[in-house]
Design a protein that fits this description.
single chain; elongated; about 60% helix; Alpha-Beta Plaits; 2 domains; about 170 residues; 4-stranded antiparallel sheet
Length: about 170
């Protein structure tokens, strides 16, 4: 079959097959490998950047620990400041809160226990006033826990009876 072609035609056929073969190699093997290599390099650069970020964070650990110690000392100082006259602070807060939210204090009875102080309150006022007062109480005194709460609506006035526990 190849005998029918001249030497020149055989060279053209060989060159054509060679070009088709090289094109297929480029499209099917070389190009995808080159793209995969570029993706791998990008991933490696991202990992190196991430590694450098982690190293800088590790270098910041001693400084952050010092800041944490300072903050813990400040919190400790604040707790000590609340210590002996804490009941007076709560009373001042109650007086201010009752006046601000137009609430009526119907009953107040403090009690002491080994692990903290109890305060039994009966308050009357608007829904929003009572809700805001209780929310601000928890913000001001995060160690304040409501042990029992009873709510009653009487003549468009919301009454709340609450037993608060202030942990030591």
């Amino acid at each position: 079959m190849l005998d029918r072609f001249s030497k020149r035609e055989k060279l053209f056929l060989l060159a054509g097959f060679l070009i088709v073969g090289l094109t297929l190699y480029y499209l099917l093997l070389f190009s995808p490998l080159r793209e995969e290599t570029a993706n791998s390099r990008q991933q490696l650069e991202n990992l190196e950047r991430e590694y450098e970020d982690y190293l800088s964070q590790i270098e910041d650990i001693p400084r952050l620990e010092e800041e944490l110690e300072e903050l813990e000392e400040e919190v400790g100082i604040a707790d000590e400041a609340e210590g002996p006259d804490r009941k007076e602070n709560v009373l001042d807060f109650l007086d201010e809160g009752l006046a601000r939210h137009d609430l009526n204090l119907r009953s107040y009875s403090p009690e002491s226990a080994e692990d903290g102080d109890f305060v039994h309150l009966q308050l009357a006022g608007s829904y929003h006033g009572l809700l805001d007062f209780i929310g601000r109480s928890y913000e001001h005194y995060p160690r304040l826990k409501a042990e029992e709460m009873y709510i009653n609506m009487e003549e468009n006035v919301l009454e709340i009876e609450i037993l608060l526990f202030l942990e030591d």
